[in-house]
Specification:
Helix content is about 80%, strand content about 0%. The protein is mostly helical and about 110 residues long. The protein has a domain of about 30 residues. Belongs to the BET1 family.
């Protein structure tokens, strides 16, 4: 007899838990497929925005690196031109020193 009362009490408690299900309680708490699709689209859009920001930052860093390398190459080119001029002047001096002794041959410097 006690068991029957407990079961009936449990059933009464269950029915209290699920009151309103037949009246649309679940439908009110659930989302429509349109709302779920919108939520997924928003998450995908946020992910794309993060990627675009990352790519924009990365392309800016690459641009700065390219500019730095171009400046360095320009300086190296200028230094090479300057060195070529100094070396050419030095070779001209050797030629003038070598005039009294034509039998001595001097190495020549050819441009790159």
């Amino acid at each position: 007899m006690i068991r029957v009362c407990v079961l009936q009490g449990a059933r009464g408690g269950r029915s209290a838990l699920f009151d309103g299900i037949e009246e649309g309680g679940i439908r009110a708490a659930s989302y429509s497929s349109h709302e779920i699709d919108e939520h997924e689209n928003e998450r995908a859009l946020e992910g794309l925005q993060d990627r675009v920001i990352l790519l924009k930052r990365l392309s800016g860093d690459i641009n700065e690196e390219v500019d730095t390398h171009n400046r360095m190459l320009d300086r190296m080119g200028n230094d090479m031109d300057s060195s070529r001029g100094i070396l050419s002047g030095t070779m001209d001096r050797f030629k003038t020193v070598n005039l009294p002794y034509p039998s001595i041959t001097m190495p020549t410097v050819e441009p790159l």
